[in-house]
Design a protein that fits this description.
little secondary structure
């Protein structure tokens, strides 16, 4: 059984107050070679935490870590 959590003092806040927001390099699914490397290819799927396969990609495309991914084909941050 889950414990209840007190939420009466919760409030909304802009994500940019907590996170550094940036766009990532787009990799089109039709251009990937499945199981070609060790980098997770993350999609909007609800299965396997969104990891579709593992791919090979240039190091400059990699985020350095400590990231939260928000999927959206038309989602951009400015």
């Amino acid at each position: 059984m889950m414990n209840s959590i007190e939420t009466t003092n919760w409030r909304t806040f802009p994500l940019v107050d907590v996170f550094e927001m940036s766009n990532t390099k787009s990799i089109v699914q039709r251009d990937i070679i499945p199981d070609s490397g060790t980098t997770p290819y993350v999609t909007a799927s609800e299965k396997n935490n969104g990891v579709l396969t593992y791919i090979s990609c240039p190091p400059e495309w990699l985020d350095k870590g400590g990231c939260i991914m928000i999927g959206g084909k038309t989602l951009t941050f400015t």
